[in-house]
Amino acid sequence: MSESTSRWPALAAPPLFLITAGLVIWGSFANLLVETDRSGGEMTLNMWGSTDSDEGVIVGLSAVAAAVLLVAAAAVTLLARRPGRNAAGARALAGIAAGWTAGATAFVGMIVLFQISEASDRQNSGREVDAGLGMWLLIIASVLAVATAIAVTVSTKAAEPGTHPWAEPASGAFAMIGAAVLAVIGSFLPMYDRTARRSGGDVEIWQSLWSQGVSGNIRPAGDIVRWGIPVTVAAAVLVIGGVLIAAAGNSPERRLAGLFGRLTGAIGAGALGGLVTGVAVMAIDALKIEEQDRSHGRESDVSIGFGTYALLIATAIAVLGAVWGARSARTAQHDSVAPQENTR
């Protein structure tokens, strides 16, 4: 049995992925939010900066990564149309690209929601915040990417399960579930650590994806964006994908469950990657605090926390699990073809 793609989705998927990539790049430069005050002053923010500071710079790298993956998915999906080509790799890359787009969108979406919530809580401040065009473009791109990845999956015939040891689905499933657990643990660990040198003693400041803390009797400076929420959602998607793959196993009757398990796992891995890319650049950006303290005559030490490293490792494991799941499908398909060829 050879894998093939049905005509319409196979023709539509590459241009749809390219259109989505364009929307992502456009959305990264368009305004994510627009803030106005009583005096009529306006501040806008996109993924590369804002009108009053450069704090958002390099967060756009997550959008660039998503666009690159979408272009790659378009190319691989186009190549998968050729006779004799296995579409498992196209499905995996399509899922990862779609998930990465959704993850990058969720990362900046949490910032926009936080700013809108802050403005709503301070109604007397005269500050009004609204989502901009860029946010809506990224949301549309995410929906389009996921829909196209699903279309690519349902338009390909599932490979027959094989018995080759390298085709064992449990390996990819365990990798996805393990990555999900590590990601949730990492979300509670510090994203970065800062030790401020003071005359009365050192003050330690840290921030995770859920909260921030300060040693001693000093109160944390306000609320934070809780990126732990979308990271947990991405982890849950990974677990669902892993469970579906493990439940399907090598059973011919459960091939459809395995197919969608691989897609779900790939989307979860990509979503985690899109989120963690944003987290990592924010943690790296926090290293600038040390330079700022020095410029003001203060001493401090800032370092990337264990949480960031845990999330990066979890992302790598999740992506490897998604790729391994696709590889197991390829090997299984090749194993099932051989007996048919030998009998002819």
TrEMBL record:
Keywords: Membrane, Transmembrane, Transmembrane helix. The chain crosses the membrane at residues 12-34, 57-80, 92-114, 134-154, 166-189, 227-247, 259-284, 304-326. It comes from the Bacteria. Signal peptide: none annotated. This is Uncharacterized protein. The lineage of its organism: Bacteria, Bacillati, Actinomycetota, Actinomycetes, Pseudonocardiales.
